[in-house]
Specification:
Layout: H1 2-7, H2 22-50, H3 63-68, H4 77-91, H5 97-123, H6 131-152, E1 160-162, E2 170-172, H7 177-195, H8 203-220, H9 223-229, H10 240-258, H11 267-284, H12 288-294, H13 296-315, H14 325-331, H15 336-356
Antiparallel strand pairs: 1-2
Helix pairs in contact: 2-4, 2-10, 4-5, 4-10, 4-11, 5-6, 5-11, 6-7, 7-11, 7-13, 8-10, 8-11, 8-15, 11-12, 12-13, 12-15
């Protein structure tokens, strides 16, 4: 909105030409979403506390969770999504189909997560929306998003899969792109959701992934940088850096309230939306495999659950004391803050490895 307003004034005031620069608007996007989250965060937390909008704690989890975390408000993802959407609408080019695709994915998955959180609060248990209905909702949202990209965008390389570290290794997926894209969106959405189990644990890794894809989106959408790095240039995807910047700012602001001890939980309202949005970005800029590297912490958490389930069903034994794996370390006696900070360190290392793939080809 403001982007279009200010650029319309360029002929009268040359100063407004600065709003054409992606780097400038990305910085504004970060700051805008951060400020919005700061402004609305405290009042909404107060309202949620007064209305007893609190998420149930897993009864099979660590005992101190039941003691320390009971009564903490949930659905904090609402705060994050408001910051992201408003900031994106203000500073992004709203004629860009990729921006609207991301807005659709983030809002739709947020609504799905909201329904899940509401059911958990209503029935006072951690089950929420039945898994098959949640999966069906994610499937429909993912399918609509991919249809928008296929039908409405002019993305020449959408059906290609690019492998990091190899500049000429490209797989044309054809129709297999659709199930692959659905797998990426649904998998990423659930992976972030599984990671969101300790105060601040998912927030910082999401911020790191978004920050990494801010850079990736910019260079992929820039002819000079993409040619220098020998990666595929994709027109108009640079605008995604605005959305990524809004995610960084919103998560940074939310961390103020979500840092241990958390004043509010993200809930499925935030985690499903953030995971799915990051996946959609990776699909558009054709760095799906890099997403798995940069977001390797989310992959680790998901794999730990899969291993636990398979092992128990086949042998009757559990590999971990509790899954996801962050609870395993809690059961071993690690302090929550120790787990969170060490997992953040892992996320930082993985982000650096993922960004190194831009040059190491």
């Amino acid at each position: 909105m403001l982007f279009h307003f200010f650029t319309s004034l360029i002929d009268q005031y040359s100063f407004f030409n600065v709003f054409k620069y992606l780097t400038f608007r990305t910085g504004l996007s970060v700051m805008t979403s951060l400020i919005i989250v700061f402004i609305i965060g405290a009042p909404l937390i107060k309202i949620f506390s007064e209305k007893m909008i609190t998420g149930p704690i897993r009864q099979d989890g660590p005992i101190d969770h039941i003691v320390k975390k009971s009564g903490t408000p949930t659905m904090g993802g609402i705060i994050i999504i408001i910051g992201i959407i408003f900031s994106t609408l203000l500073w992004a080019d709203l004629s860009n189909v990729y921006i609207w695709t991301l807005i659709f994915v983030s809002l739709s998955l947020s609504c799905l997560g909201l329904a899940d959180d509401i059911l958990k609060i209503k029935y006072k248990n951690s089950r929420g929306l039945k898994s098959r209905y949640k999966f069906l909702g994610q499937l429909i949202i993912g399918a609509v998003a991919l249809t928008i990209l296929i039908k409405l965008s002019d993305h020449q390389y959408l059906f290609n899969l690019y492998f990091p570290f190899f500049k000429n290794l490209i797989l044309h997926m054809g129709l297999f792109f659709i199930p692959f894209g659905l797998f990426v969106i649904i998998g990423s959405s659930n992976a972030v959701n599984l990671t969101d189990g300790l105060d601040g644990l998912a927030t910082v890794p999401v911020m790191l992934v978004a920050l990494s894809f801010t850079l990736i989106s910019y260079v992929v959408g820039n002819t000079i940088f993409s040619e220098y790095l020998q990666i595929q240039y994709i027109p108009d995807v640079g605008e995604l850096s605005i959305f990524c910047g809004s995610v960084v700012g919103a998560c940074l602001g939310f961390l103020w309230y979500n840092a241990p001890p958390a004043k509010i939980f993200m809930g499925d309202t935030g985690s499903l939306s953030l995971g799915g949005s990051l996946a959609a970005i990776a699909i558009i800029v054709k760095h799906e495999i890099v997403l798995a590297i940069i977001g390797g912490l989310f992959v680790l958490e998901t794999v730990s659950v899969i291993i636990q389930v398979i092992s128990f069903k086949l042998t009757g034994r559990r590999i971990f004391k509790m899954a996801p794996i962050h609870h395993h370390f809690e059961k071993k006696g690690w302090a929550e803050s120790t787990i969170v900070i060490r997992f953040w360190i892992i996320a930082i290392i993985l982000a650096l490895v993922g960004l190194a793939t831009l040059k190491l080809r």
